[in-house]
## 1
Amino acid sequence: MKEARNKKGQFVKGVSGNLKGRPKLLKSYKNTKQSLSYKQWRNKMDILSKQILKKENPDLYKLYKNNIYAPHKKSTDSCLSIDHILPARFCYDMGMPPIACANIYNLRVVSMKKNYEYKAKWTKIMNNGLKNFINSK
């Protein structure tokens, strides 16, 4: 696989697939602060999130399981998903362990539509606001 950064540490257009500078999630992507690749970390965190939600709030977990998202369903309004208030990718990039991201206070069950809206909002913050903040220092 080609290197996604140039000598200055910047992402190269065309290699990452994202012109805004944030890399696509590659299977081989690995944060140096983490011992696991993103895919391994994410799988572990997803399992922990479900286990913790089931233990801490069984009624909400049952509602989630009865209305879980499935690709064949037409509407995402009635489908539920587990949303992480601090996004998983952000937690991984900050070097947090999966159990910290799966904390019950970082979880909420929302519709898929709402989850997409939250993701778009965080992506905008990460691509614009945070980058500008870092560059201003």
## 2
Amino acid sequence: MDYDKGEIIKKSNIKFKGTHKLDFRIGGHPVVLPIETKDENEFLYFLTFSSRDDLYVNEPDRYLLVAPDKYNKLRKTSIIDLKYIYKEKNANIPPIGILNRRDYTELIRKFNTYQADESDEYYDEIRTFLGDTYRQN
């Protein structure tokens, strides 16, 4: 499936890198796609959301705080974890929302800054695709 930068989908069975626990949510876990993914791409890369916005207080550089709006369709203020990048087979999952232009721009700025010091294993694979072009509904 084709995905635009900043689109939000729900992924099932994510094995979280920090805890090594598997997410068993039936409806999936919201994730954001930092780069465009085309149907012919074998993999998609994503960052996870959490509704635990209290974590932001202790590590504000590691997380991006995102308020719900008409574009992202989040139910409550959430954080995006900038530390771990996930890579999985491209899937046919319809998007549930998209980050607004301001949040996406801040995501990429903050993500690049964080990854410069705490580089994830997949950062070099996607860094050249992070950038300016952005589509908003």
## 3
Amino acid sequence: MKITEIRTVRPSREEDDFISFPRGPSYVHPVELQKAEPLTNNFRVVVSTPNTDWRKIAKIIDNENIEAGYVQFYPTDNGIYISNVFLEPKYRGQNLAALTYKYLMNKYKLPLRSDDRQTVKGQKLWLKLSQDPEVS
């Protein structure tokens, strides 16, 4: 299936303990969309670099081309620093963030690093990842 567009669903702020979601439409260039790779049977991931930002964004896209969430990160020589993660409430609990982290580690051949902020849910995810033999 060829991806031609992404529809973005905006988050509901009262449901989250911490969100930093970009304002305005979430635009992914059609050429980048063609590079989307499978994450699971129902989700794909595409990595893009916004023109005005130093971070990269791994967008998680469902089978209907709706953005399920994203991981903002920046790769350096010593690791992939995760700076922000967001998943729409209906997509949470499906292990998508962890699978995206593993995807990034395989793509860049670098270990994961956290930035200086974590939510309680984020701390639980990092603990879970630290116990995963594929990651540690």
## 4
Amino acid sequence: MSAKKPIKIWFYLGTADEPGESGHADDLGNGRARICNIPFMCDLNIDDVVKLKKVRGPKSYLPMAGEVIVRAFSSKTMLKYPEPCRENYVKVRDALVAAGCKVEGMVSGILMVAHQDDVKVLKIAKETGVKCSVAK
């Protein structure tokens, strides 16, 4: 039996001035999905289970994440890290994953961290010897 391919959903529809944000989720059936990546523009997080809702209008080609049924991580933090990017990314990622976080590299020098409120993300990152800072 093969695993189902993730579906694409809207996390945030945006406004006339903002494009919105979409990403991937595992279809759990019965109108529910588990988010597969760390959204940037909204309060949803990786592994959250959400109700899916239909969208009306020009963006109706994807379902929309609705009510959160299960909140997996209570917070997210964006970190900046210096060159050498690959080496520093791996050090920081490994330390944060060991602390129970989930990490995604966004672009070279920036990563997103999904974590619980009590996890001191910047402290853990700095303990690797990498000079990290919180990105805004």
